[in-house]
Structures are given as C-alpha cells and as structure tokens.
Amino acid sequence: MFNSSERACRVWCGLACVWLFILSAGCDNAGVTPPDGAGGVDGDAVEISAADRERERQLIVQIEKLKPLHKPMGKPRPGDWLAQHKEAGQSFELYVASKPVRPLGKRRVIYIQPLGDFTATQKKIIAVTSEFMGVYFNAPVKVKETVPLSAIPESAQRIHPTWGDKQILSTYVLHDFLKPKLPDDAACFIAFTAQDLWPGEGWNFVFGQASLRQRVGVWSMYRFGDPDQNEFTYKLCLMRTLQTAVHETGHMFSISHCIAFECNMCGANNLPESDRRDVWMCPLCAAKVCWGSRINMVDRYATLKAFYDKYGFEKESVFMQKSIEALEK
Ligand SMILES: [Zn+2]
Ligand SMILES: [Zn+2]
To answer: What is the Å distance from ligand 1's center to 242 Cα?
Structure first.
C-alpha cells in the first residue's frame, strides 16, 4: 500500500537520490559524470600549489580543534537518508586528491541564473542568498538577468500526473540550458527557480540537482513554504534556501555527501531531516571549502558571522564565534 507518508518519503527521497546518483558510477538517470579523480572534465582544474600543500597541513590541525563543537553522525533515525542509502563518504584527503573543481584562476565567479517568475519576496531571497554564497565560498557572485520559463521547451516541462504541480525537468536545465552557456569565467553556474523540479521518469520531484564535475546545478524554492505568510515563514524559507544553495554549490565544487557529522553536506531524505541540520558544515567539509577557495578558516568564520549578524541569524552567529575561539586556542 502506498500511503501518503510513503509517498512523501519517496518524493523527498527523490532529492537525496539525485544527489546520490551524482556521486555514483552508472548515474545515467541523472545524466552527470561521476567523480573519477581525474580532474575537472572541462580541463580547467587548478594545479595544486606549494601553498595549497601548506594550507592542507594547517587545515588538518584545525579540523581536530573544531571537532568537539560538532555532532558526529549517529545511528540514522528510521526514514533518514543513511537508513536507506549506503554512502562511502569523502575524507578531506580524498577530496584534495580528487583535484576538485575550485573557484580559482580564470574560473572564479559563481553565476546564478534566475529562471521563471518570482514574487518580490522571492527576489529578495535570491539577493540575500547570492550574498551568502559569496561569503560561504569566498568567491564573487553574479546574478544574471532573469530568463522566462518559456526558455524551457514544452518537452522538458510537465504537469505532475497526480498532484497537478507544474514541473520542469532538472536534467534539461543542467545539460541543455546551463552547460552550453557556461560563462568563460564561471566557477559554477546554478539556476534558481520558484518552479517545481523533477529529474525524469520514476520521480515525483527534487529540490535541487548538481554535478560534481561539470560546474552546473539547479535548485528550487517551490517546496520551502510561503515566505509572505509571516516573519517566521520568511526566515524559514530563507534558511532552507540558503542551506540548499550552499549544499548544491558544495557539490559543484566536488564535495560529496558527508557521513561523518550532522552537517549541511549530508544527504537528506525528507524536510524534517534537513531542517534539523544547520547551515554550517562540519570541520571536514568546512576544510574542503577553505582549501578549495584558498581562504583562512578564521577569516571565513568571521565573514560568515558578520553575515549572520546582519540578517539576524543569532544561533549561527554564536556558533561562528565559538568556532573562531576554538581555532585560536
Ligand atoms: Zn547532496
Ligand atoms: Zn560534513
């Protein structure tokens, strides 16, 4: 029997599964190249410098200082992503050895492509999110002119057969819409839409999808609640959008799902599972970002703290402060 909660699980699973497909060999369904440790597929991988090696050594020390502040991944709860899916994880060393996609060299800019219609509040969320992505990954962010939904052909759109939601095909957005238009200076190129997404046959919907190697991604705020209802729903929708934006961008910078800690790079099978995690990353994943972006860990936390203070995210601000103090001990 396929009751409504099983259906919900299945659809949320859709998001997580697409993330997994990206990480797996034989991921034809998602149509993206699996990581192979052979460098960026576009040939723009940045060489590892002597300074990178030195930073790697420093970060390994800093990871240990931060670990006591974070919650190790425990036994998954029933219905959690890890209760249903086996994942190998990705150590910091493995990430470095994979010659990851990095926002460096001639490809430094994070491009956001708004797609379809947005309300005034949703436009505000895009603006805040773009600022956040810049701070989080220490890279310039450019928001491109909004492209109307008519840019996506009818063949890559559908009405969900049961629910009636209008949906666009995420794999089309990645490979046919974004990839051919990847700007020359793009570290990555991510479409942002208020439309629902689905990744193809057999799926109900996904929140987002990204490639670990091809610099393209897409995410949707369709299922993050109505930000115009009240201040609480605005903040909740904004936080979910921030979390998804940096999770997908993390993937575009070759960071795999985390299985070591409760972390924003963990796979999530449902909204309660992702809501109970924080927007910050665990020490291992944060070290990947710092190494990838060539940023000092303390400086990054200080800039993030300033962002959280500016937008009234108190818990996040306090956590950044604690992290800085732990690193300075
Ligand atoms: Zn993911
Ligand atoms: Zn992590």
So the answer is: 14
